[in-house]
């Protein structure tokens, strides 16, 4: 019988301890204790680490967005380069150049080129 009473008293005490702890946290009484004041620098350090961690994650996300934007631009520029190169290759063929020059009155030579030798 005594064991049951002891168990019930321990339960009541443990319930009271939890309630007291909750009241001291919500009321701010735990901050006035010397033990808590001694740990304040460490708590501030942890808060600073949390702020740095959050800032670092925002910075990383910003960098990821910038990298994705740059990759899209690079892809577009690569497509533009390929298109321009293709147009240049097409327009610089001998037949295209000959057609454009005949419109201006310049004819393609039928005589092969000759080498000029200079004797010293």
List the helices and strands and how they pair.
Layout: H1 2-27, H2 34-38, H3 40-91, H4 94-103
Low-confidence stretches: none
The radius of gyration over CA amounts to 43 Å
Strand content: under 5%
Number of helices: 4
Assembly type: single chain
Name the descriptors:
120 residues, mainly alpha, 4 helices, 78% helix
Please sum up the structure shown:
By secondary structure, this protein is mainly alpha-helical. It has helices at 2-27, 34-38, 40-91, 94-103. The protein has a domain at 11-91.
3D architecture notes:
The protein is mostly helical and 120 residues long. It has a domain at 11-91. 78% of the residues lie in helices and 0% in strands. The chain is built from 4 helices and no strands. The protein has helices spanning 2-27, 34-38, 40-91, 94-103. It is rod-shaped, with a radius of gyration of 43 Å.
């Amino acid at each position: 019988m005594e064991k049951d009473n002891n168990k019930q008293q321990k339960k009541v005490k443990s319930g009271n301890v939890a309630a007291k702890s909750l009241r001291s946290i919500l009321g701010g009484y735990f901050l006035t204790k010397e033990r808590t004041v001694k740990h304040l620098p460490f708590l501030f350090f942890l808060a600073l680490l949390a702020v740095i961690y959050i800032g670092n994650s925002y910075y990383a996300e910003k960098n990821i967005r910038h990298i994705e934007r740059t990759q899209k631009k690079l892809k577009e520029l690569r497509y533009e380069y390929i298109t321009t190169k293709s147009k240049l290759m097409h327009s610089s063929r001998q037949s295209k150049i000959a057609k454009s020059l005949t419109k201006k009155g310049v004819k393609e030579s039928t005589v092969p080129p000759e080498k000029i030798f200079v004797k010293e």
